[in-house]
Design a protein that fits this description.
The chain has about 375 residues and is α+β, with helices and mostly antiparallel strands. The protein is built from 17 helices and eight strands. The chain folds into three domains: about 1-60, no CATH class; about 65-180, Tyrosine recombinase, N-terminal domain (DNA polymerase, domain 1, Orthogonal Bundle); about 190-380, hpI Integrase, Chain A, CATH 1.10.443.
Amino acid sequence: MRCRQNFSLYKRRVPVKGKIKIIYYYHCYDENGKRLGFSTGKTKKSEARAYCEALYKEDKLIPDIHNQTLFKNYSKDWFIYDKCTYVNNRLKRGEKYTLAWCQINRSRLERYLLPYFGNKVLVKITRVDVEDWFLSLKRLSVTSKNQLLRLLRVMLKEAQRRGIISHNPAEDVRPLPGKCKPRGVLTQKEVKKLFAKENFGEYWKGNAMYYTANMLAFCTGMRQGEIAALTGEDIFPGYIAVKHSWSKIDGLKTTKAKKERLVPISDFLYQDLKSLCRPQKSAFIFSKTGGRRPVTGQRLKDALYFALAKMGIDKNERKKRNIVFHSSRHFANTQFIGAGISTVKTQAVIGHAGDSMTENYLHLHLEQFQDILSVQQKILK
């Protein structure tokens, strides 16, 4: 008589992060001879086999269906920065999770996940439950809905890792196809008009701080938080040393690339920046509190939108074209690439490059940035 194996592996095609992947599952039998199927979460057969063998040794091939942990109890400390085990473990590994990221996801959890899953037992949450919840989300963009699905996947994957559940039902739910609207970009003619000296009083209400901050964004592609974080210590003839970023929640932090970079600036930008610097070099340049605290990103955006409206691009037109503050990065990127500057060099300057690439450009002499400076001159002159 042939002996029945403790488990048998089989493959399934599962959507993971928008892509179809092969995930190994296993069959086993309960005490009544009923065949059951569970996910290993592994994409390699050898890893899946090792996973099942480890479960077999611990007598855990069949999960504890009597575990009555409710979703609301499991999620009690999730995304609370100083209490969340998931976040703390990854911080110890050197991964970056900000307080702002935790607060945003905690808010999403409380608003969208807990009302539906709160009183459900974790081991009893099924794919149908996840799909019904996902398709019931209303008044949200496709991007927001997919972000919530990813959030649930992360939480249930961690529950699977801890042995609370044997399979992550959210893995089997396909995200919605994206409908990403292309980011709008102003033309060079529009940017010239926006920052023309004769329009300074009408468009920018004569406010040199908002005018210079926005002009800097369009000429260099710097991020909003990087501009807000600038102090007199970062400004040099011919370039800016971008060391920090500023957010309303986290305050001063490292840049998105986690690396200092040099951003070349033409003389007219240098002079405008120097005129705003305060006697104390460590003071923030763009500030309404005497340099103690940077101006908020919202104020920079409001100033830009006011100037655009004065120029003839009102709120409706701006939304139709999808023009936002971040459009300045796309504008700078387009101008640099259009002038024949290499993609590698462009990305290093605007902060899209990898660490090694950026490192190479940190050691360039200023004369090697002349092509960037020439483009800046053409943008506004």
